[in-house]
Each structure stands twice: as structure tokens, then as C-alpha cells.
Amino acid sequence: MKYETVIGLEVHVQIKTKTKIFCSCSTEFGKPPNANTCPICLGMPGVLPVLNKRFLDSSMKACLATHCTIEPMNRFARKNYFYPDLPKGYQISQMEHPLGTKGFINIDVDGKQKKIGLTRIHMEEDAGKLIHGENLGSPGKSYVDFNRTGVPLCEVVSEPDMRSPEEARAYLTELKAILEYTEVSDCNMEEGSLRCDANVSIRPVGQKEFGTRAEIKNLNSFKFVQKAIEYEVARQAKILDQGESVKQETRLYDSDRGETFTMRSKEEAHDYRYFPDPDLVPIVIDDAWVEEIRKTIPELPEQKRERFVSDYEIPEYDAGVLTSSKPLADYFEQCATQFPQPKIISNWIMGDLLRELKKDGKEIGDCPVSPSALVALLKLIDAGTISGNTAKGVFEEMYQTQKPASRIVEEKGLTQITDSSAIEEIVDEVILANPSQVEELRGGKDKVLGFLVGQIMKASKGKANPGMVNKLLKEKINR
To answer: Pick from 389, 342, 349, 398: which is nearest to 369 by CA?
Structure first.
């Protein structure tokens, strides 16, 4: 490759609180436009903001979970710009005195570990939302919904340490898992709880200086982040190959066309004319407060992965999948406490269960098959009541109907045949019906064994115990 990609991400995280950052308005999603507003979040003259302490505690938790140093003195600043969805004409954010600095997140891409540095995590309020008239049957007009104005955010700013779209996606996946495990955010991207801006540049391989970057704004899915970066890298490479220069600018991603396009020229910090907010006093955070928050941090994804590998003796890949979300990890552990065969549980979760959930677009929290129901199915296999192949069909019906496995097996007469004499009769019938294949098997063509086993299973309607079928067939063939 002629060029090396350089990526830094700015992730806007909505912190899970019932009220906004500086007022008592609700943060509930889906309310009618401008229902969750008051004079404070609308920036009316004479009002004074008061910081939400739960938001501050949760933001500190996010900092500690990502190995940031919490700065002892914090101060809010006014970020000045003018846009219809910003009623005050400025956004309350942090500039010179952020909450957390110098953290990191470990990622894994294709089995290779990498540490991605965090420059800072700072607190800020969200802006409102513009709704364009084309979506409301009023072309040429735009409307403003201020419900999001003042919603509490943390902005997580990475170092430009990522070198591929795959690394960017892995970073976002790990960050999302950390935020979910600590319960500081629900990370619902469809509702805007997690949004990402990607700073992308390229440079000739071996060059130390960074290239000119473009910022891609408001990416709201991991897939779009990866696709947008891939497009942007190709676009910048084409510009440089033509002997031209990349412009520093802010761009948007059109997911329908799979392209980025110019939004505006890129601003620098001085363009926003930051200055300390005179209505908010500095926040002093002592060591005792930090330690109090540190005690509330649960087992994090990286620690849980390591424990799953050591305690349950499952592969690192399995552990990575199972700990990708806290509800999924909890589901696995609930199964493992009832049925101490973790690799079998892992196979079923990663295979049949996640496949059905993906097909329906559901998360594990909406799974119609409970851990105890899955364990009941696995116990039927373990006891030899049904075969593994039969169990797959049973699981699909469990998923669709929420019936217990035992009831499905009973209603459909799926109990496995384990009577050796009954199986032996079927084996004899198949041998008599397929003399040429039997001779081929005796002549050393081992592939024919699968055909004969399939015929026996078909004759038994899938009920014959596969192990006994193989054993009896081999014994009779080798006589």
C-alpha cells in the first residue's frame, strides 16, 4: 500500500440519567416535540444552570473504566457557535479543564492486541434536533425540536492511533461494551445515545507527519463508521494520486449512496471562542471522591473475557463473543451454573441462538428462550433422549412458540431410539437394501459410511441414536 490510514474517533455518549445536565427536565426519548423543555435548557434570560450530580458521578465512572486520570479541577466553558438548534447561541462544554485525560482501551483485531489511547473525556450538553420539512410534508421548511437540548453527554476523544476501519470498529465495540457494563449509558444508537465523529487522514507509508484530515460527522452505527472510513480513505488516496491536496473539512456520510460529502469547512478551537462559563463554578474532585466511584465499577469486558477462558476453559474467540455485551455474558453464566458443560453451551449460544436473534433483529434481552429453557434442551441431549440434530429443530420451535423442550419432544414423538435390538433391525434392512454400497465400504471406500448412516437415520425418522447406529453398522460390515 502506498498510504497509511490514520483515524481518531470522537464518540458522544448520552449518560443515563432521568433528568438533563443543568435542569430537571426529563431525558425520556420519544416525547412530543419540545415537551421536555424549560427556561433553563431553552436558554431564557436570567436563568442559572445547576449541575446534575448523578451525571457527574457516572461520567467519572466512565473515565475510571477507560483508565483515565480524573483531573482534580474541572471547569465548564462556553463553546460559541450559531445554529437553529442551539437556543443559547453557545454550548456548555469543557475545553482547558476536562474531566478525564490520558486513558486507553485495548482492542483485538484478527487475534492481534492493540492499545488505543484516549486524549480526554469531557462533559457537555447536547444541542436540539432539526427536522426538515421534506419529512413532514412541508418542503422548504425546517422545524426545531429542543427535547435533546441539555441532555447530558460525555465526549470520548481518542488519540489518532487507529490504522484501519476494522480497528475503528473494534474500538467502538469495546467502548460500547465498557459503557454498558458500567451502566453509565444504554448506548442505544437508534435513539442517539451513542454517536461518532471520525477524523480520517492518510499519509505516504513511512512519513511521520499526519496528512490533512477530514471529519465525518454524526455516524450512528458501527457499520456506517466502517463504510464511511473506507470510502473516505479511497477518496483521499485518489486526490493525492492526482497530485492535488486534501482539504480540511467536515463531511457527512450518505448511507444510501455509500459516500461522504462536504458539509462545511473544518473549524478549529479558536473559531468557537471558548471562555469559562461564568454561571458555573469550578468542580474540585478529591481522591476520596474518586475512590468512592472506583468501588462501584463492576467486572469489565476485558476482565470477564480472561475469567471465562480460565474458569470455563473455553477458547478466547468464544469468550470474546460471549462477553461482547453484559446481558449475553449473564445469559451464558446462568446456563453454566445449571449445566456445567460450558463449551457445549457456548456452541449453542453462538450458533443457533444468536442466529435466530440476528434473523429477528433482536437483542439477547428479548430472547424468548430463557437460560433455564436452553439448559433443559441440553439435558435432553445429554441424557440421550434426543439427538443433537433433532435438538436443532426442537430449539427452533422453542424460539417460535416458547414451549418447553420436553413438551415439544413429547408432542412430536421425537424421543430417541436407544434400544439396540430395534436399531439393529433397521441397520439390517438398510444393509439388505444397499448391497453395492456395502461392498464399496468393505472395499475401503469410507465415504459410503455417511450414506448408509443417513439411510438408517431416514428409516428411523431421525430417532435412532447416531452413536449406536455407527457402532452396529461397522460391526456388521466388518463381519
So the answer is: 398
My answer on whether 87 and 208 are in the same domain is yes
The gap between the terminal CA atoms of the chain, to the nearest Å, is 63
- For residue 108, count CB atoms less than 10 angstroms from its CB and return exposed for 0-12, middle for 13-18, buried for 19 or more: middle
Interatomic CA distance for residues 426 and 452, integer angstroms: 11
Vertex 401: Cα angle to 399 and 404 (nearest 5): 80
Hey, what's the torsion of the CAs at 386, 389, 392, 393, to 10 degrees?
-80
Domain boundary among 237, 270, 293: 293
The domain that holds 449 is classified in CATH as 1.10.10.410
Which phi-psi region, left, alpha or beta, contains residue 287 (left: φ > 0; alpha: ψ -120 to 50)? alpha
8 Å CB contact between 176 and 13: no
Q: Which residues contact 71 (CB under 8 A, 6 or more apart)?
A: 97, 98, 99, 100, 101, 285
Question: Mean pLDDT in runs of 10 for the chain (479 residues)?
Answer: 93 97 96 96 94 98 98 96 92 96 95 95 96 80 94 98 96 96 93 94 95 92 94 96 93 93 77 93 97 97 96 95 94 97 97 95 93 96 86 94 93 75 81 83 79 82 76 77
What is the domain range of residue 377?
301-412
- What are residue 259's phi and psi, to 5 degrees? -135, 155
* Nearest by Cα to 23 from 142, 150, 138: 150
| Grid coordinates given for 351 | 450458533
Measured from the Cβ of residue 369, the count of other Cβ atoms closer than 10 Å reads 21
Cα 74 vs. chain centroid, distance in angstroms?
31
Strand order in the sheet with 194-204: 69-70, 100-109, 112-125, 152-158, 3-14, 194-204, 214-219, 249-254, 259-265
| Nine-digit cell string for 59 | 461520567
- Final residue of a domain: which of 293, 328, 362? 293
Counting DSSP H helices and E strands in the chain, the numbers are 16, 16
Report the number of distinct structural domains present in the chain. Answer: 3
